Request: fold
Amino acid sequence: MTVVRYDGHEEKIANEDPNMNALLPLVAATAMAAMVVGCETPRRASPPPGPTVRYPSQPLGTADVKLLAKSGISDEVIISQIQNSRTVYRLTAPEILDLKDAGVSEKVIDFMINTPSMYRSTRPPPPPPSY
Reply:
């Protein structure tokens, strides 16, 4: 213990350990870092969603529609499949008769006939028939 005298007063100061002086800045820095960071685990921001990928549906041909109708699939399901495929039909009179003979309902045939007005086709319309 060290005794220091000034102005007639005596003050006792404990001897300081030299190793304690070296650790004091380290302890202070650790305490400050803990206060800044906190005890909570850092939350990672969720990554931004990737671009929406749209896969083009395969066109649903008349043969597919006939197969679905012959298999007993309901008109609603066939029409939903046509809508999802975004197929545009330009049916000729013989194709309409062929669909009817294959058991395709008039509701489905009517829907197929009206697809050109529902969707824009990426294909140009077929050339007019030559007589």
Notes: The chain has a mean pLDDT of 77.
